[in-house]
# Entry
Amino acid sequence: MHIRKYDVDYGRRKMMEKTAKGLGYAGVLGSVWPMLAKGQSTDIKMAYPDEQISIEEHTKGKISVGDTITADNLEHVEHLLDPIAVEEVRNDGRQIKIREATTDVLDLFEEPFLEQTIANRGKTVVDDDGNIWYEKQGTPAKGGLPFPEPKNAYEAQANINYGWGRHNYSQYAIKDWDIGPDGDVQYQYEFVWSELQVTVRPDGKVWNNEEDMLRYQSVFFTAPNEQSGTSFLNTWPYDQRQFPGLVGYLPAFKRVREYPTNQRFEPLVPGITMFLSNAWAAGDPLATWGNMKIVGRQPMLGDFHGGWDEGQKDSPNWALGVHGGPQGQTYFDTTQELCPECIVIDLEPVKYPRSPVGKRRTWLDARNGEFVRSVDYDRKGKIWKTWQAGFSKYTGLKTGEGHEPWSWRWVHCHDIQSGRMSRLFQAQEVTGGYKSEWNTSGDDAYDKYLTTQAMRRLGA
# Structure
């Protein structure tokens, strides 16, 4: 039986207790995962009181589903946003529409990834070097979340570092606008982001028997003409103490060159605020960051499921509307909802002495382990940059394996110190005819997009 009413601080007190005791499960009234494993229920209402699911209950009627958060009513949800989002709404005209909270866990996963998570729950271990293994050292972790009930910050961060897009193969057609502090569009790019998961795959297999590799990942630009052909390739060892190999092709020089590790904290192309390190709030090997700690648990506003059905799937090329900022084009139009519980972690780039980032704070959805947003602080401890994304089931579409995809839809990467914003969305197609697709085998993609030879060919 679901008990309907608790005092308004009940959930907050329980989450504080869980943080203090190092309890990692998702839920306040009980854990989500035993219910899923036993096939009892997929409804998170069994695990959370109404005050953590209903925005009306949470704000004592001040905010309702269908309302729009603006500077005028921000005070009622300020505690549900990161400090940069608060600044955006309060002083830069950002608005956030509120939707009903997602309560079915199946809407927060793609089927194969969830199945692997349940099947492998409790079987992943961390060794003394910070690498994770399936039951014993030397056997790569299986697919799904390595730690659906993380007991510490390292396990919580591992859930995103090892899985990234949560598909065997992902290909994202991306359109990007880079907005200056005056609100003008200074740069506009189209590019393709390609990810081949070698181990820790949703199908539970190891691609090409390469147990010493985690993934291959590339990004190549298709527009505008002056950047077309610019491409970068990351090759990720499974050993999370090792830095990925990073090579790039610049058409102006007509050659492939190797880049230093600290290139992960620099823009790939002029004007963009995104670094490789920002990707998935987990753009670097797990063991190259340290001093990780859980600093809290809290409800949070985020975009987890329904945005795709709110007009984006019927929009030309899946485009999103924009608003806010000096010229009315700084922020995507987004609808967000109440996430009942986020795990808040701090971590530092301990293996990058030249990193401009001093600390990263990340909010992770306790239900599915995905990041909700992250905020980078500079070396002086000042707030610097946010990395926030929206996710959804792409209802009505199918992956290469016949499942309904769950993927990211949009990203804001806002450098609050310079006032520059990069906003990206996953498009249906970009210049060159490249399309977004998920969960093909990846065999063809490796030869096409994920080798040094492919970088030269794409550049040419």
Notes: The two ends are 63 Å apart (CA to CA). The helical segments are 10-21, 32-37, 55-58, 83-92, 111-120, 153-161, 443-449, 452-459.
